[in-house]
Amino acid sequence: MIGRFLVPLAIVLGVFVYMHDGRSKAATASVTQTCATADSVNVTIDWPPPAIAPQETWVDVGLTSAFTAGTFRGNGPIVPTQTSASIGSLPDGVKLYYRINTRSQGSWRVQASGSFTTDCATAAKAKPTAAVDVISSGS
Fold first, then answer.
1. Nearest CA to 54 among 97, 98, 96, 112?
2. Cβ distance 111 to 100 under 8 Å?
3. How far is the C-alpha of 119 from the C-alpha of 90, rounded, in Å?
4. Is CATH 1.20.120.140 the classification given to domain 24-129?
5. What is the pTM (predicted TM-score) of this model?
6. Domain boundaries, given as residue ranges, for the chain
7. By CB distance 3.0 to 4.6 Å, which of 15, 75, 83, 111 could disulfide with 100?
8. What pLDDT sits at residue 19?
């Protein structure tokens, strides 16, 4: 009798584990670009507000999604309740990754993450760039 319940339970548990495979729970943000010069772009990143009010917020922009030392620029701390940041003079034609880190209740969390490619030609049209979710390797 117990065996009849264990098989469905194992299936449900397997589906749950499969659906929660460790991908980033961070949201994506809206990235808007404008041309600064012929070869540099300014971006504004807008992200959803966190569920818990943060004590500290940083916006990182880098060359890889791993954000290893020397591959990204940390911008902050910014006003903790701020949900938008502008970063200037980024090189045109480069794929960049962003992450919004917030600290609340003593721990850090990636609030939003993704990637975009700077494109002055597209930026001239002043429309938001679709951001791509990035798999987080941890907190």
1. 112
2. yes
3. 10
4. no
5. 0.70
6. 24-129
7. 111
8. 34
